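Q: Got a minute? One more chain.
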Amino acid sequence: MANTKQAAKRAKKSVKQRAANVGMRSKLRTAVKKIQAAVATGEGAGAQSAYQAGTSVIDAMARKGIIHKNKAARHKSRLAARVKALSGNARP
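A: Always. Here it is, folded:
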């Protein structure tokens, strides 16, 4: 329990912020899963469009501090490699 008015306010604000962060993290995971599902179907054009839509979500979450920028780069790199492999231009 908070001992001061300031601590009580911070506790209330942190609950609201956590709820917002949970929602954004869910949005990120959904975007990644959509790309992975598009790659799993084997359709190159669909996977490419899903990747383009997903990268903007990944970048937005990194900008907002939901995930670290290096984690965002890692996600994008791995997903790009999988999308590129569908077109047959993957590096060995």
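A: Residues 28 and 57 are 6 Å apart (CA to CA).
Q: Perfect, thanks.
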